[in-house]
Write a structure and sequence with these properties.
heterodimer; A: about 280 residues; mainly alpha; globular; B: about 200 residues; mainly beta; Lipocalin; eight-stranded antiparallel beta barrel; two-stranded antiparallel ribbon; 2 helices; 13 strands; about 15% helix
């Protein structure tokens, strides 16, 4: 992919997400910026719309693609829509869980159905359980850990996790999956800027479930369809890194971000060790 | 005289005996004795080669190969339309002489070999265009996309050997990988792929 096309593929989702935040969070108005309670569904919608725009720009608008990973085009808007409903205030916990479950089931059906159903038509229950549980657990864990860290640091952590996953996928020999992760990272960059202008932790948290689902699907696709011997434990190290920032030892949010960056950096460095650059 | 008759009868008995045991009659056409009856062959993956050529950065031609080739060939010299080729290549056997690059080639960036494990050519019609030249019209399936493809094939030889009935073919053809949805790194690696195949097969 030539650098200009790659740049457009990154700038477009950032611009789409930025425009949605600008409009939905009233970032042009000083009064709106002073109000910390920004509308929560906007973050999910921005990730969904920006992800779809960037993905379509990079890989083409194939609405009924042949290849499983290209169905990510539909995972982004699905995550955006269901994530937006889930992020609304006053939603009962059971409905919130039901929406997450529906989102995860939909994403799995879109990108991993060929893996979950064997050629004989048998459902692979073990894989379904693991691949279904991981995004659900991450969404709950990240929501519990990142919301107390504040909007800017929370958005920064999401950006860090997504960028690190992109690097890990790249080093694992899946350039396209890495680019798809980069699209999500670009949208999260816009979220970080929007959160800096209007720091609402609840509104930032609207992005968590869509990001947890999209990143999980990218990693599962890498495991199932890639050939590189990269360990899923590296993604576990990245995904669980926010726990390092939850330590009571550090009170400043920025210091927490630094603590989270350490395991993330280790995971990326370990992934890089397996990267064979001789054939580039 | 009796001796001559006996010799003649013995000579006649050889092809008759061969026919009775199922072997095809052989006639000499120049240096290569050709088998005339329709014969079904299995492609010998050990003695066959499929090599591809692609341009790297517009600088040089790069050559790679596939290591797992299989299939069947039905060769009917008398009624060429009855001839048929089915060739299967394992996509994950791509070999570019670099393990890291092989991993990348097999990934969804290129062949997506786990989702599309086979590269296949199936002939739909066959025409003989000379002593050894054949034209096969068929379909190639690559990366999950099936498209029509015409191959000019040279029958290098077909004969009885101590290892049984053997036949060999050469073909070279070119296609655009983007036609098959393989659009990875088009700015670095050329779109046009030239395939050179030397196929040896053994009679069933």
């Amino acid at each position: 992919m030539n650098p200009a096309a790659l740049l457009v593929g990154v700038l477009l989702p950032a611009a789409v997400a930025g425009a949605i935040f600008f409009a939905a969070w009233g970032l042009g108005s000083k009064a709106a910026r002073a109000d910390a309670s920004a509308p929560a569904p906007a973050a999910a919608i921005a990730i969904g719309a920006a992800g779809m725009a960037g993905f379509g720009q990079l890989f083409g608008w194939q609405f009924l693609p042949r290849e499983s990973w290209l169905w990510l085009l539909w995972v982004f808007p699905l995550a955006g829509l269901l994530g937006a409903v889930e992020a609304r205030e006053g939603i009962p916990a059971t409905l919130r869980f039901g929406l997450r479950l529906t989102l995860v089931a939909g994403a799995l059906a879109l990108v991993l159905r060929k893996v979950l159903w064997s050629t004989g038509g048998e459902l692979q229950w073990q894989k379904l359980a693991i691949y279904g549980a991981v995004p659900l657990l991450l969404a709950s864990l990240w929501r519990a850990l990142l919301t107390p860290m504040g909007a800017v640091v929370g958005a920064g952590v999401l950006w860090l996790l997504t960028s690190a996953t992109a690097a890990m996928l790249l080093f694992a020999g899946s350039l396209k999956l890495a680019q798809a992760s980069g699209v999500a990272a670009a949208a999260l960059g816009a979220l970080a800027v929007a959160c800096w202008l209007r720091p609402s932790p609840r509104a930032m948290a609207g992005a968590i479930t869509p990001v947890a689902v999209v990143l999980s699907m990218l990693v599962f696709l890498g495991i199932e369809y890639g050939y590189a011997e990269y360990s899923p434990w590296l993604f576990a190290l990245i995904a669980l890194a926010p726990m390092f920032g939850a330590s009571g030892l550090v009170r400043r949010h920025w210091a927490r971000l630094f603590l989270i960056a350490i395991p993330v950096g280790i995971a990326v460095a370990l992934a890089f060790r397996t990267y064979d650059t001789s054939a580039l | 005289m009796k001796l001559l008759i006996a010799l003649g009868a013995a000579l006649l008995a050889v092809p008759l005996a061969l026919t009775a045991t199922g072997a095809a009659p052989v006639i000499a056409t120049g240096a290569t004795p050709m088998l005339l009856a329709p014969t079904t062959y299995n492609i010998d993956g050990v003695h066959s080669s499929v090599v591809f050529k692609i341009q790297h950065m517009g600088l040089a031609s790069f050559y790679g190969r596939f290591n797992k080739i299989s299939g069947t060939v039905v060769l009917d010299q008398d009624q060429p339309a009855g001839s048929k080729v089915e060739l299967t290549i394992a996509a994950d056997s791509v070999d570019s002489n670099n393990e890291g690059r092989n991993t990348h080639l097999k990934s969804p960036d290129f062949f997506n070999a786990k989702e599309f494990p086979e590269i296949k050519f199936v002939s739909k019609s066959a025409k003989k265009e000379g002593d050894k030249r054949w034209l096969l019209d068929g379909e190639m399936t690559l990366h999950g996309v099936t498209k029509k493809l015409s191959l000019a094939v040279e029958l290098v030889g077909a004969k009885e050997t101590p290892k049984g009935k053997l036949a060999g073919f050469d073909t070279t053809f070119t296609f655009k990988r983007s036609d098959y949805g393989m659009t990875g790194m088009l700015d670095v690696l050329g779109d046009e792929i030239t395939v050179m195949a030397g196929i040896e097969c053994k009679g069933q």
